[in-house]
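Minutes, project huddle
Topic: does the predicted pose make sense with KE4 bound?
PN asked that the exact inputs be recorded in the minutes so nobody has to dig through chat later. Recorded below.
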Amino acid sequence: MDTETSARLFAEALEYIPGGVNSPVRAMKGVGMPHPLFIARAEGAHIWDVDGNEFVDFVSSWGPMILGWGHPEVVGRLKEQVEMGTSFGAPTALEVELARLICEAMPSVELVRMVNSGTEATMSAVRVARGFTGREKVVKFIGCYHGHSDGFLAAAGSGVLTLALPDSPGVTKGTTADTILVEYNDVQGLDEVFAAEGEQIAAVILEPVAGNMGVVPPQPGFLEACRDLCTRHGAVLVFDEVITGFRVAWGGAQERYGVMPDLVTLGKIIGGGLPVGAFGGRREIMETVAPLGSTYQAGTLSGNPLAMAAGAATLRALAEPGTYERLESLGARVEDGLRAAAAAAGRAVTVNRVGAMLTLFFCEGPVRSFAEAKAADIAAYAAYWRHMLERGVYLAPSQFEATMISLALTDADLDTAAAAAGDWFAGAGG
Ligand code: KE4
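Predicted holo structure (tokens), as shared on screen:
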């Protein structure tokens, strides 16, 4: 595959950008690439790199592009808004429209504040929880990633996990001293933390379906235990639904599993491919946010018209009848194809899937936690990834990320991916 232009662009990027990329996982180091692919354009579920190589995409820009690229409603609303103005630093009807859509869709959300990234959303939600409770400790789960604000960079998942940096330089001891780590799905561990420090815990934050150690679903009773312990000890339960929001159900994981958080953070899909984040939840908690309350939070481009237009158009398209049945069907077909290919070759793998997000782990499994995810054969995943790329299939360049299914995938796309995976497992790589 000719990737000469990507190589040249990467050499130039290294002159101006740390590591030549604006987010570490894009460097594709986790899959042994000499340089990342530079993408030129996308349409439907296909992307083209700058050398003209075409791929069926299963990354969806890490989640936002659940409709695929070029959806007429999204593009139309963006074009219309660009002509009217891209940013005013003042309220617009668009942010009311998106806020209403979110509040109507998400059972736990009574008030919602827009921000510009998932990191901002989780950072703000934790500040609000600390302000509301007057407490300082925050419980997070090992392997979950909530963006890169200091308090979370303690055995985080996603980029930090992929770079095998369990902690980040620059994060102070004081900051992580208020972060308590528990293994994902470890109800007993969480119970013990509450027994020891319950009255100091401001919040428990988690991905209700983990996507940043690869996909790890909640074990039966885990979300309920988080809810019950937070209720009993007066802590705020925060569902980080930056990935799962509008992906695993119209109302997110809280609807799919029937467990209501006190606060929820959103991002990705609600911006339809534009920079976005949001945090929201119970009215009495959200009313503490400035200017109504005294917990400060702000942002120049919060609620910016372009992200609001793209986000509202995306949610309106997702609200169409049959959307989540189709996402479930697409996800199941991908999962079944992978299981069949591995089984035919007698290769022990684990496929974890919730709706339209899944991960193929190169280990026997089960994979219910970060410790178990780490047992995956990263070198095998990297070789599989490169094989799939050669066959025109673009997967997340890390074993510890999620395959993000989009509605734009066609039967032909799924057949292409299944054939390529089947050849991998049947051949030397499998
Ligand atoms: P951003 O700040 O990247 O918009 O969102 C941070 C974030 C928060 N919460 C969850 C559950 C997330 O998955 C993320 C970001 N996800 C990663 C991929 N798993 C973004 C990709 C990247 O870092 O380049």
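Observations noted during the meeting:
- The pocket of KE4 is lined by residues 23, 25, 62, 117-119, 122, 145-147, 158-159, 207, 211-212, 240, 242-243, 267, 277, 401 (CB under 6 Å).
- The mean pLDDT is 95.
No decisions taken; revisit at the next huddle.
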